[in-house]
Specification:
Chain lengths: ~160, ~260
């Protein structure tokens, strides 16, 4: 049981790190997750699906494939989104969307709700996150519905 | 076994830095040509179908014509058919002693227009500059890219390498993430190439026209939601220096065709 003890210790050390950036809603990281909704309310899965599939908003399908039979040309730089809601809790999905660098500083996943550590941001996108808090919650709610890696996987 | 640990540690460090750098070894370098569909490859291979050759023909005309009355034409100094410039495009950017900085091929042409031909230098991405550059670069088609071993270029090359590896834009991506670490995969509809500038200026089907490497770099920067560098900026010349070293010894393809 030593590994579990060690993991438990690491989690408790990481417990409830509060983060807040100017203009963005504060949130608490607990372990590998942000357990609480950024808005205090649950998101809307249908709106979330639209964001994920939109290549100028969520941009997700540029790198990820997923259960979107109507979408051609999905990327393969990142894991397939099929079944991701079974693999990860909503809080874990939320942290990976908000700022995955907390878990892996070398991740190529953009930090969708952070302005920190960015360089040469284009004029049109300056001083705002890729998605706002409500959009993050919509995406979290949608990803939570992707429960089946098998039948979700192939269009 | 007195102290094996430091040696093992050093070996691990070396392995880690090699994996992290992700640079493509010379023998593994591939032109984006190899990843294109058969139809697009056929358009590039056939000079009568390659739309870039129209610009080359315009370039040949500009080459022969004095830019102003009494001013010399390019041909007056460099020879009528341009073959005297074989190999030049394969070694640019190069050090320019007059301006004391590295200079790329299009800036060399602009400088010649201004200083030696008494003409207004053609604007970046103008048909005239693209045509002249394409005509000059065509003379090196098939020549291996061969960056000069000039220590004065080292600083710019190192700056270019840092720009290539640095994350930028709202998406926090870098050139290296796609073109060193993930080439061959698909970013949406696009097969990610290694990103070697072998064929500029080139004809992009997406542009429906000829464009420079800097135009392509600006496209990528906009894709990362970064503020693009200005045409002719030292940052772009630094990137071009690094990209040439990174692409050697692939052959020059100008005028290439890309999707």
């Amino acid at each position: 049981m030593r590994p579990r003890l060690a993991a438990g210790l690491a989690l408790s050390l990481m417990a409830a790190t509060a983060r807040a950036e100017g203009g963005l809603r504060p949130y608490a990281v607990v372990g590998d997750a942000i357990p609480a909704s950024l808005t205090g309310a649950p998101g809307d899965p249908a709106r979330g699906r639209a964001i994920v599939a939109d290549r100028t908003r969520g941009l997700c399908l540029l790198c990820h494939a997923g259960p979107f039979p109507e979408e051609r040309f999905q990327g393969d730089l990142a894991p397939n989104l099929a079944g991701v809601g079974a693999r990860r809790s909503p809080g874990a999905l939320r942290l990976r969307l908000v700022d995955g660098r907390v878990l892996n500083p070398d991740t190529i996943m953009p930090s969708y709700y952070s302005l920190e550590g960015l360089a040469r941001v284009g004029r049109a996108w300056r001083d705002r996150p890729i998605l706002d808090a409500a959009e993050i919650e919509d995406v979290v709610a949608f990803l939570g519905t992707l429960r089946d890696a098998g039948t979700d996987a192939k269009p | 076994m007195p102290h094996p640990a430091p040696a093992v540690f050093a070996a691990l460090l070396l392995a880690a830095s090699a994996a992290g750098a992700g640079e493509i070894a010379p023998a593994d370098r591939r032109s984006g040509f190899d990843q294109m569909g058969a139809e697009t490859r056929a358009i590039q291979r056939d000079d009568t179908a390659n739309p870039g050759m129209l610009a080359v023909a315009d370039g040949a005309e500009l080459w022969a014509r004095p830019p102003a009355a009494g001013a010399p034409a390019c041909a007056d100094c460099h020879g009528a058919d341009g073959t005297g410039l074989r190999g030049v495009a394969a070694r640019y950017p190069a050090w320019d002693a007059r301006s004391d900085r590295p200079i790329d091929l299009q800036d060399r042409i602009r400088q010649c227009r201004r200083d030696r031909q008494g003409a207004v230098p053609p604007a970046y991405e103008s048909p005239d500059l693209l045509a002249l550059t394409a005509f000059v670069a065509l003379q090196s088609r098939g020549e291996p890219i061969r960056p000069p071993a000039d220590p004065r270029l080292d600083r710019g090359r190192a700056e270019g390498r840092a720009l290539f590896a640095g994350r930028m834009g709202q998406l926090g991506l870098s050139c290296a993430i796609c073109h060193d670490d993930n080439w061959g995969r698909r970013l949406g509809a696009a097969a990610i190439p290694q990103g070697h500038p072998t064929g500029y200026p080139l004809y992009r089907l997406e542009w429906q026209g000829l464009g420079s490497l800097q135009r392509r770099l600006r496209n990528c920067m906009t894709g990362m939601r970064a503020e693009p560098f200005a045409y002719g900026s030292p940052e772009f010349v630094a990137l071009e220096l690094y990209l040439a070293a990174r692409a050697a010894p692939l052959p020059v393809e100008t005028p290439a065709v890309r999707p």
